Amino acid sequence: MTPAAHPYQATCVEIDGRGLLILGPSGSGKSSLALSLIDRGARLVGDDSLLVEERDGRLLAGPHPNTRGLLEIRNLGLLAFPCAQVVAVALAVVLDPAAPRYIEEASSLDLCGAAIPSLALCPHDSVLPLKAELALRRFGLGAGLSQ
């Protein structure tokens, strides 16, 4: 990350080279979703604290140096995980109990001057990690490209 990077409160994992930004209020399950995705092969970028910047129209996310490689797991504390350096964010998911049942297309989120697709997912769903992966494949930047 360059000195132009800004701190941002969110969680991010890297799946097949693309970043999945996880947003939601404290206690909504951002870290739990990240842990489930890591168990399915994702790699941690940052938990609850990232550095983000726009570069060439893309949103880049990297770990904050104070929390690099750490994931907060409720009832266990901060645990160390392998961590990606920087990833281009392809999709933002917002954990929201009022998420719509059906969407035809993703919304857009502007962060640091970069527009990324965004959609809401209900956090209390037993298949939430699978839904997040499917959302990345269907709505994320670069969807349909061979990975």
TrEMBL record:
Record keyword Chloroplast present: no
Gene Ontology MF term list: ATP binding; phosphorelay sensor kinase activity
Residue span(s) of domain HPr kinase/phosphorylase C-terminal: 9-80
Keyword Repeat included in the entry's annotation: no
Pfam families: Hpr_kinase_C
SUPFAM superfamilies for this protein: PEP carboxykinase-like (SSF53795)
BP term (GO), one: regulation of carbohydrate metabolic process
Name this polypeptide is given: Serine kinase
